[in-house]
Design the sequence.
């Protein structure tokens, strides 16, 4: 019965992955349809009072992509994880534990950290050419330069319609980015060091180290090293952290929060509780919704503990 149930879980996961692949092919890889005159469409919808942000966010292919990931890929990942979990060879972990004793373990961790820093520099400098590639990055850079000059907002340009951008607000004679100030403040500090990329890349390069420490707290050193290594080969992590987007800096403070929370809960030292609070507070000022989503379970846990075991 157990074997039959395991086979069903595996087939269910693979079936959902196949369904996602078929959906992606039908919708052309979820790319937006070409041939549409978006300029004319935007002007026509603007005349009838439709917000441009809605025009962009409600694109049919983008909506289908989001639903497909939620309905197909998320359950598929859960099913495949359930199938793989009991099949993880215990002997492999035992062998890894012997191979990764103190000196070798530390050397591997240093190598992973240096490799992360090197890969991020390569992506930022030679793949992206040291230039922003997303509108958000230009907005963060605009906000950072404003903060570095000692102001929270810049004076409005003489021709506001010439500088229209959905991420930058021009109102009442002021010119300001719409994002919270956490990440722009870090970029502003980085500008003072000579490049807007210094601090974002440095913090992102330390994320595998924090992930290692988190996994070590919960599952031991071998798992920690595996987790750090998997993060380094993640294309999503490398590509987003090598830009001026706020994903890398936010991930650093969220990982620091989780690590400090775990250590504070185990009574390591009261200072860890303060570090956890500061880290989640900074993350809340970088990506608010992400910080709430990650921090909420950790906030519920001590409240539940107040009611007893």
Sequence:
């Amino acid at each position: 019965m157990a074997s039959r149930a395991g086979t069903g879980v595996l087939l269910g996961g693979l079936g959902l992955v196949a369904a996602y692949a078929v959906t992606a092919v039908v919708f052309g890889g979820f790319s937006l349809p070409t041939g549409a005159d978006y300029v004319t469409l935007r002007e026509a919808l603007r005349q009838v009072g439709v917000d441009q942000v809605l025009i962009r966010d409600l694109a049919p292919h983008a909506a289908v992509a989001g639903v497909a990931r939620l309905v197909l890929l998320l359950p598929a990942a859960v099913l495949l994880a359930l199938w793989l979990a009991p099949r993880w060879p215990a002997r492999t972990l035992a062998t890894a534990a012997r191979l990764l004793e103190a000196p070798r373990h530390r050397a591997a961790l240093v190598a992973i950290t240096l490799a992360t820093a090197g890969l991020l520099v390569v992506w930022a400098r030679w793949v992206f050419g040291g230039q922003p590639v997303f509108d958000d990055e230009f907005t963060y850079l605009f906000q950072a330069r404003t903060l570095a000059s000692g102001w929270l907002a810049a004076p409005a340009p003489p021709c506001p319609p010439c500088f229209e951008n959905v991420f930058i607000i021009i109102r009442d004679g002021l010119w300001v980015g719409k994002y919270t100030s956490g990440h722009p403040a870090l970029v502003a500090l980085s500008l003072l060091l000579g490049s807007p990329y210094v601090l974002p890349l440095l913090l992102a390069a330390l994320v595998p180290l924090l992930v290692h420490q988190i996994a070590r707290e919960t599952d031991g050193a071998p798992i920690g090293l595996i987790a750090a290594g998997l993060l380094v080969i993640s294309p999503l992590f490398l590509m987003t952290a090598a830009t001026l987007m706020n994903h890398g800096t936010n991930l650093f403070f969220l990982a620091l929060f989780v690590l400090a929370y775990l250590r504070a809960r185990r009574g390591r030292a009261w200072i860890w509780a303060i570090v956890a609070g500061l880290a989640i507070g900074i993350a809340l000022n970088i990506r608010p919704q992400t910080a709430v989503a990650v921090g909420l379970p950790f906030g519920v846990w001590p409240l539940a503990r107040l009611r007893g075991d």
About this structure: The first strand starts at residue 154 and ends at 155. The chain has 15 helices and three strands. The CA atoms of residues 79 and 97 lie 28 Å apart. The mean pLDDT is 85.
